[in-house]
Task: structure prediction
Amino acid sequence: MRTQDTQLRDKTVPIVVLIVIPIFAGIGMYAYGYSFLNPSIINPNSFYNNLLHRAAQACYLIVIIFGLCPIVFTAQRFSKNNYRYIANEFEFIKKSLFVGLPILIIVVIVSQLLSHLQVTIALSLFDAIFAILAASVATVTGCFLRIVTYTARREFRFYLARGYCRISSGKQNNFDKIKYLFLSLESYNKYLV
Result:
Protein backbone atom coordinates (compact mmCIF):
# COMPACT_ATOMS: atom_id res chain seq x y z
CA MET A 1 0.00 0.00 0.00
CA ARG A 2 1.30 3.45 -0.93
CA THR A 3 1.36 6.29 1.51
CA GLN A 4 1.19 10.04 0.98
CA ASP A 5 4.98 10.17 1.22
CA THR A 6 5.50 7.85 -1.75
CA GLN A 7 2.86 9.73 -3.75
CA LEU A 8 4.76 12.93 -3.06
CA ARG A 9 7.98 11.29 -4.24
CA ASP A 10 6.21 10.33 -7.45
CA LYS A 11 5.41 13.99 -8.01
CA THR A 12 8.80 15.43 -7.05
CA VAL A 13 10.19 15.83 -10.56
CA PRO A 14 7.02 17.44 -11.98
CA ILE A 15 6.78 19.76 -8.95
CA VAL A 16 10.38 20.89 -9.39
CA VAL A 17 10.17 21.28 -13.17
CA LEU A 18 6.67 22.74 -13.47
CA ILE A 19 6.49 24.88 -10.33
CA VAL A 20 9.92 25.65 -8.84
CA ILE A 21 11.88 26.21 -12.06
CA PRO A 22 9.21 28.56 -13.54
CA ILE A 23 9.37 30.56 -10.29
CA PHE A 24 13.11 30.95 -10.86
CA ALA A 25 12.40 31.98 -14.45
CA GLY A 26 9.94 34.59 -13.18
CA ILE A 27 12.44 35.91 -10.63
CA GLY A 28 15.12 36.10 -13.31
CA MET A 29 12.80 37.93 -15.68
CA TYR A 30 11.74 40.26 -12.85
CA ALA A 31 15.33 41.25 -12.15
CA TYR A 32 16.09 41.52 -15.85
CA GLY A 33 13.06 43.75 -16.49
CA TYR A 34 13.76 45.83 -13.39
CA SER A 35 17.28 46.59 -14.59
CA PHE A 36 16.05 47.79 -17.97
CA LEU A 37 13.36 49.99 -16.45
CA ASN A 38 15.79 51.39 -13.85
CA PRO A 39 19.17 51.72 -15.60
CA SER A 40 20.37 54.24 -13.00
CA ILE A 41 20.11 51.61 -10.24
CA ILE A 42 21.30 48.48 -12.07
CA ASN A 43 23.35 48.46 -15.25
CA PRO A 44 21.27 46.52 -17.81
CA ASN A 45 24.42 45.24 -19.53
CA SER A 46 26.15 43.98 -16.39
CA PHE A 47 27.49 40.45 -16.16
CA TYR A 48 25.05 39.46 -13.40
CA ASN A 49 22.07 40.82 -15.27
CA ASN A 50 23.02 38.89 -18.39
CA LEU A 51 23.59 35.82 -16.23
CA LEU A 52 20.06 36.17 -14.77
CA HIS A 53 18.62 36.50 -18.26
CA ARG A 54 20.46 33.41 -19.48
CA ALA A 55 19.39 31.50 -16.38
CA ALA A 56 15.75 32.39 -17.05
CA GLN A 57 16.16 31.17 -20.63
CA ALA A 58 17.72 27.95 -19.33
CA CYS A 59 14.70 27.48 -17.04
CA TYR A 60 12.41 27.71 -20.06
CA LEU A 61 14.55 25.18 -21.91
CA ILE A 62 14.41 22.74 -18.99
CA VAL A 63 10.61 23.02 -18.84
CA ILE A 64 10.28 22.47 -22.61
CA ILE A 65 12.62 19.46 -22.54
CA PHE A 66 10.62 18.00 -19.63
CA GLY A 67 7.43 18.46 -21.64
CA LEU A 68 8.86 16.68 -24.67
CA CYS A 69 10.64 13.95 -22.72
CA PRO A 70 7.92 11.24 -23.20
CA ILE A 71 8.68 11.20 -26.92
CA VAL A 72 12.13 9.77 -26.27
CA PHE A 73 11.76 7.70 -23.09
CA THR A 74 8.47 5.88 -23.57
CA ALA A 75 9.64 2.25 -23.52
CA GLN A 76 11.27 2.32 -20.11
CA ARG A 77 8.60 4.57 -18.58
CA PHE A 78 5.77 2.14 -19.34
CA SER A 79 7.08 -0.85 -17.46
CA LYS A 80 4.87 -2.74 -15.01
CA ASN A 81 6.17 -0.86 -11.99
CA ASN A 82 5.44 2.61 -13.40
CA TYR A 83 1.68 2.50 -14.05
CA ARG A 84 0.85 4.12 -10.73
CA TYR A 85 3.59 6.71 -11.19
CA ILE A 86 2.28 7.62 -14.63
CA ALA A 87 -1.28 8.05 -13.33
CA ASN A 88 -0.14 10.19 -10.38
CA GLU A 89 2.05 12.33 -12.63
CA PHE A 90 -0.69 12.76 -15.23
CA GLU A 91 -3.20 13.86 -12.56
CA PHE A 92 -0.72 16.34 -11.12
CA ILE A 93 0.11 17.79 -14.54
CA LYS A 94 -3.58 18.09 -15.39
CA LYS A 95 -4.25 19.95 -12.13
CA SER A 96 -1.24 22.21 -12.69
CA LEU A 97 -2.55 23.10 -16.13
CA PHE A 98 -6.02 23.82 -14.73
CA VAL A 99 -4.48 26.21 -12.19
CA GLY A 100 -1.80 27.76 -14.42
CA LEU A 101 -4.00 28.50 -17.43
CA PRO A 102 -6.49 30.79 -15.60
CA ILE A 103 -3.58 32.61 -13.93
CA LEU A 104 -1.98 33.12 -17.33
CA ILE A 105 -5.24 34.38 -18.86
CA ILE A 106 -5.92 36.77 -15.96
CA VAL A 107 -2.39 38.21 -16.05
CA VAL A 108 -2.53 38.70 -19.83
CA ILE A 109 -5.93 40.40 -19.59
CA VAL A 110 -4.77 42.68 -16.76
CA SER A 111 -1.58 43.65 -18.58
CA GLN A 112 -3.48 44.33 -21.81
CA LEU A 113 -6.12 46.38 -19.99
CA LEU A 114 -3.45 48.42 -18.23
CA SER A 115 -1.69 49.18 -21.51
CA HIS A 116 -4.93 49.80 -23.43
CA LEU A 117 -6.33 52.15 -20.80
CA GLN A 118 -2.89 53.75 -20.45
CA VAL A 119 -2.90 53.33 -16.70
CA THR A 120 0.36 54.28 -15.07
CA ILE A 121 1.41 51.86 -12.35
CA ALA A 122 4.50 51.57 -10.21
CA LEU A 123 7.44 49.94 -11.92
CA SER A 124 7.70 47.27 -9.26
CA LEU A 125 4.06 46.24 -9.87
CA PHE A 126 4.72 46.14 -13.61
CA ASP A 127 7.78 43.97 -13.01
CA ALA A 128 5.78 41.68 -10.71
CA ILE A 129 3.10 41.23 -13.38
CA PHE A 130 5.85 40.44 -15.89
CA ALA A 131 7.41 37.89 -13.50
CA ILE A 132 4.06 36.17 -12.89
CA LEU A 133 3.48 36.13 -16.63
CA ALA A 134 6.92 34.59 -17.25
CA ALA A 135 6.38 31.90 -14.61
CA SER A 136 2.84 31.04 -15.72
CA VAL A 137 3.88 30.82 -19.39
CA ALA A 138 6.59 28.33 -18.43
CA THR A 139 4.21 26.25 -16.30
CA VAL A 140 1.44 26.17 -18.89
CA THR A 141 3.86 25.39 -21.72
CA GLY A 142 5.47 22.50 -19.81
CA CYS A 143 2.13 21.03 -18.74
CA PHE A 144 0.60 21.37 -22.19
CA LEU A 145 3.59 19.78 -23.93
CA ARG A 146 3.67 16.92 -21.43
CA ILE A 147 -0.05 16.18 -21.82
CA VAL A 148 0.14 16.37 -25.63
CA THR A 149 3.18 14.09 -25.84
CA TYR A 150 1.58 11.59 -23.48
CA THR A 151 -1.84 11.49 -25.14
CA ALA A 152 -0.43 11.47 -28.67
CA ARG A 153 0.43 7.81 -28.18
CA ARG A 154 -2.62 5.61 -28.32
CA GLU A 155 -1.32 3.03 -25.84
CA PHE A 156 -0.82 5.70 -23.16
CA ARG A 157 -4.53 5.62 -22.32
CA PHE A 158 -4.29 1.88 -21.66
CA TYR A 159 -1.32 2.34 -19.31
CA LEU A 160 -3.11 5.23 -17.62
CA ALA A 161 -6.20 3.04 -17.05
CA ARG A 162 -4.00 0.37 -15.47
CA GLY A 163 -2.38 2.99 -13.25
CA TYR A 164 -5.77 4.25 -12.08
CA CYS A 165 -6.77 0.65 -11.28
CA ARG A 166 -3.63 0.16 -9.18
CA ILE A 167 -4.24 3.41 -7.34
CA SER A 168 -7.86 2.42 -6.74
CA SER A 169 -6.86 -0.94 -5.26
CA GLY A 170 -4.59 0.78 -2.75
CA LYS A 171 -7.18 3.29 -1.50
CA GLN A 172 -9.01 2.74 1.78
CA ASN A 173 -11.86 5.20 1.20
CA ASN A 174 -14.68 3.85 -0.98
CA PHE A 175 -15.27 7.23 -2.62
CA ASP A 176 -11.63 7.40 -3.70
CA LYS A 177 -11.83 3.84 -5.03
CA ILE A 178 -14.89 4.70 -7.11
CA LYS A 179 -13.29 7.93 -8.34
CA TYR A 180 -10.22 6.12 -9.63
CA LEU A 181 -12.29 3.29 -11.11
CA PHE A 182 -14.32 5.83 -13.08
CA LEU A 183 -11.11 7.52 -14.23
CA SER A 184 -9.83 4.10 -15.26
CA LEU A 185 -12.97 3.32 -17.26
CA GLU A 186 -12.90 6.73 -18.92
CA SER A 187 -9.27 6.32 -19.89
CA TYR A 188 -9.83 2.79 -21.17
CA ASN A 189 -12.79 3.95 -23.26
CA LYS A 190 -10.58 6.62 -24.84
CA TYR A 191 -8.02 3.89 -25.56
CA LEU A 192 -10.64 1.77 -27.34
CA VAL A 193 -11.92 4.66 -29.47
